Each structure stands twice: as C-alpha cells, then as structure tokens.
Amino acid sequence: MKAIETTGLCKQFKGKKMTRVDALKSLDLQIEKGEVFGFLGPNGAGKSTTIKLIMGLLKPTAGTASIMGKDSSTTDSRRQVGFLPENPAFYDYLSAEEYITFVGSQFSMESSLLKRRTEDVLKRLDLWEARKRPMRGYSKGMVQRVGLAQTLVHDPDVYILDEPMSGLDPIGRALVKDIILDLKRRGKCVFFSTHITDDVEKVCDRVGVIVKGSLVAVDRVENIMRSGVEGYLVHLRFQDSASRNFAGIEPLRTAGSTSEFYVSCSAFNAFMGEVNAAGVEVALVETKRRDLEDFFLSLVNKP
Amino acid sequence: MLSIVRITLKGIFRDRIFQGIMALSLFFVFIPSVASLSMRQVTELSTTLSLSLISFIMLLLAVFLGATSIWKDIERRYTFSVLSLPVSRSTYLVGRFLGIAIFMLIAALFLGSAAIVSIKIASLTYPPARPLLWFAIITSIVFDALKYIIVVAVSMTLATVSTSFFLPVFGAISIFMAGTVTQQVFDYLHTPSAQAAVSAAIRKAALVLYYLLPNLGGFDLKVHAIYAIPLNTQGLLLTGVYFLAYTGIVMSVGALLFARREMK
Ligand SMILES: Nc1ncnc2c1ncn2[C@@H]1O[C@H](COP(=O)(O)OP(=O)(O)O)[C@@H](O)[C@H]1O
Ligand SMILES: [Mg+2]
Asked: Chain A contacts of B262, Cβ < 8 Å?
C-alpha cells in the first residue's frame, strides 16, 4: 500500500466563454510511506489542483486518488492525514487553542491526550503566547503556523502541505524545514508543494516536477544532484614556479602560490594522476554542478 | 457533529451582527407604555406587539444565520481546512444547521421571556377582557421559532449551490413570504369560483408549488395567543410532524447538493 497514490488523475475546469482549462493531465504518482516528496512546479502548474483532488475537495474529471489505500472520495481517506491548504484560513472568531482542540476532536482524540498535544504543537510553532486570542487578529505568518499546528496535533502518518513555507519569515521557514526533517526521522510521509527549489534540496527524498498539468520528471534528489555534476574546481598550492599545466589543462587564474583549475568529469582522473606524480599540494577541490534550480528551470523552459 | 454544533454556536454568539440584531430586543421595554397609549385592549395590543417583535427579530436572525453560514465558510475559504478533516459534507452541513436551530430556540426562550415580562406588566396595569392564556402565548412563540428554523433550512440548502449570498438571502425571504400565503392560495383554488376563473394549467402549477414550498400558515398561532383562544392539540401535533418532515427533506436535499459541490 502506498501512502498516496494517483492513477490517470485528470482535472478539467470550465473557464470563461465555454473554454476548458486542463489543469491536470493524467497524473500517475506513487508516494511511499516514510518518504518526503517535494512537488515542484511554477505558479499555475497544477500543484494545488492535484492536492485538492487528493483531499477530496475537488472531483476528478478522470482517474482516481487515494491516501493509505482509501479512495479520496471517502471520509475515511482523511483519517490518517494532516492537511495544510494553500494560504489557509480558519474560523477567525476562534482562538488558536480552540481551533486546534476542534481539529483534534474531529480525529476522535482522547481529551487528556488532546490537551497535552495541543500544548506541544502550540509551543512548537511559537503560538503559545497568542493561543487565547481570536485568530482574527493574527498575522499571515501566524495563521500559517496555526495551519501547520493543526496538521501535527493528531500525529498522523501522512502530511499533505500546500506551499508550507509561503508567508513565513526566514525563522519560520527554518522551523518548517526542521519540522519536516523531524517527521522524516520519525518515519512519516510528507508530500509538499513548492515553487522554491531550495526547500526541496534540503529536505526531500524525491522530487516530482510538474509543468502545465503534466509531471515531467520524478527522481531521487541525490540522483539529480549527482547527474548534475559537471566538473571540479581544483585549487593547487605550488612551492616553486614549476610547470602549472597538468593533462593539458591551463589554470583559470593564479594568485600568489595558488592556482585554480577547472577540470571536467572525464579529465579528472588523469589530471589528479599528474598532480600526484608532480607532488603538488592540493589545497581544495570544489564540485561544480548544475543545482536543482538549473535542473528545474531546464525542465520548465523546455519547449 | 457535536463539536461542529459547538463551534457554530460560539461563532453566532461572537458575531457583531447577531449582537446588533439582539439589541432590537430592547424594544420590549417600551411595549407596555406604547400599548397603553391606545387606552383600549392594552394587554391584547402588548401581546400583538411582543409577538410581532419576536417574529421580526427571528426572521432577521434566520435569514442572516441561514444564508451566511455556509456561504461565508466557502467565501472565506474555511471549507478547505474544515472539509479536509475526517468529517463528511453532510455531517458538516447538518452540524451547522443544528447549531443554528438550537440557537433559534435559545433566542426564542430569551425573547419569549422578555415578551412574557412585558405582557405581564401590561396585564397588571390594564387587566384584559379575557384572562391571558399563557400556554397559547408560549406555544405560539415556540411554533414561530419552528417556522424560522424551516427558513434557515431552506436558505442553507440554497447556499449549498450558490456562489453568492443573493440566492440564499433573497431566496429565503421570497420563500418565506410565499410560504405564509400558500395555504390561502390553495384554499382559494378549491373554491367553485376559482375553478371557473383560473385555467387548469395554472391550477396545476400552483398545486406543485403548494407541495414544494413550505406551508408556514399552520405555524402562526398569534390569534390564539392574543385573544386567548384554546389551541387545537391535534392540529399542533400535525404541524409538528410537518415541521420534522419538511426540514428533514430540505436538509437531505441540501446534503446531497453539498456533497457534489466542488471546493475550488
Ligand atoms: N476554479 C478554477 N477554475 C478555473 N481554472 C482553475 C481553477 N483553479 C485552478 N485553475 C487553473 O488550473 C491551473 C492550475 O492551478 P493550480 O493548481 O492552482 O496551480 P499551482 O497550485 O501549481 O500554482 C491554472 O492554470 C489555473 O488557472
Ligand atoms: Mg497553488
């Protein structure tokens, strides 16, 4: 059983003047239990549409979605999931504490456990001071943190987060990354959407890239990072003014006794062999790679 | 469901508009003195004014609460967070409805108490021609509340398909107004003169409307309350059964429509 699964999932919206928008075109996704999956795509790619279909907020035009083996059209499918909507809004006349308690009660949590967990998550998300105030008076970042708190309170096995870092300051972003990494350590499945590659690089096991309603790539983050290695920048420190040329590669620049060389992957072994033979000291080797951002942009801009 | 009822009640009591509407109940203070200006039938007039004031306040509450609750949840995007909890759409809708219905009964209790105090004051200073029938007054207020609970159910059901608040607000008001006369129209159409004057097609259409629209005439017991006329228990029972059946059917339709609605 997969934590989240979609097969042939399609969504068509009726646009203005009888036009139709294909927001999602036959999406097949399989997210394992215990996996952190980044769902990466530019604005309007269909991330939120996918997530709403998985949560049963929208009805698919074709195909199916399920959470923990239960079809998304059932109430049961939402028993083991914590969901954070995009730009969330909660009953603004309730306080954070009241809302979190309400959410816990919907998951049939036992009341002393709920009380303890509510306190834990409010403290964790730095809402403890504000917990008694109505959410009407909260800032956008505070509402976002309430949104995260209400996914955590019942300790589900699956987390579906639509742009969890949006609206947060750098401290809040760091906190969210921390929380996701913590969930990963505890074997939870986290599926989150974002348009920021940096978020994905730090926390995800796998990443899927969606562009214009189609999934264009799915791979492990480390594979993308490895396949992205293009060469190395080698800094050598010389004792004298001997030959500064190995395997036919000239230094990029020289400053005093050190020189920098750009060595492609294929030339790396030969280059290092000659360096060793000459007994030259290696000061630093840097990996030069296309990062996830470049990978992402190359997919998005593909004609 | 219980926690949805609870947050619904919390939401109503913390709402400014509700507080404004309830401020109208201050008018009860003036009813005995206004009625005494008439010099005749002061108690009867006090009863009339009190019951009308209750009706007016409850109509405002019913339209305001019924039409805006679901609409506001969708408009303010609360539905994304709430409907992704393990709660079914129908549970949510019915929980919301029950919260408002319970509130309407609480409001009836509160307004009714105020009415009874002001009627009592009037009757002490100007003893009425016939002794007051408190049971009729209380029953009339309770049935008034039931009538407005039907209005709530109708406007909530309209809100499940509507994207603006126009349909639930004005739909509920029109259906309320039509509902209060549907019995009269029905009775008229069955008189011999109407059989001759009105075409068969229109009679059919009116008949369909008669069964579709709520029949609110039976809930109006003001005359009994004002003139201390004994109530017909069997008729009340029938009206009570009608109330349960009609709200049940309307809310089932609402639940069905709401379950199909997409949260975009
Ligand atoms: N309710 C809607 N009606 C019509 N088109 C919509 C609706 N919601 C989304 N879309 C369209 O579907 C596409 C995907 O939107 P969305 O899933 O929100 O993108 P993302 O979350 O990746 O930014 C966009 O082109 C958007 O305009
Ligand atoms: Mg989005």
From this structure: 57-59
Residue that terminates a domain, selected from A209, A225, A241? A225
Beta strand A20-31 with A189-194 is unpaired
pLDDT of residue B35: 72
Domain carrying residue A265: 229-289
pLDDT for res B253: 96
Q: B89-125 vs B2-13: helix axis angle to the nearest 10?
A: 50
Residue A187: CB atoms within 10 A of its CB come to 10
pTM above 0.90, yes or no: no
Question: Is position A297 within any domain?
Answer: no
**CA–CA separation, A39 and A199 (whole Å):** 11
Q: Which residue has better confidence, B18 or A83?
A: A83
CA dihedral B187, B192, B194, B195 (to 10 degrees): 110
Atom of ligand 1 at shortest range from CA of A13: 4
User: What's the whole-number mean pLDDT along residues A8-16?
Assistant: 88
ipTM of the prediction: 0.86
- Order of strands across the sheet with A229-237? A253-255, A258-264, A229-237, A281-289
Does residue A273 share a domain with residue A133? no
Residue A148 backbone dihedrals phi, psi, to 5 degrees: -70, -40
Q: How many CB pairs under 8 A join A and B?
A: 70
Range of the domain at B51: 2-180+220-259
> Closest Cα to atom 25, ligand 1: which residue?
A44
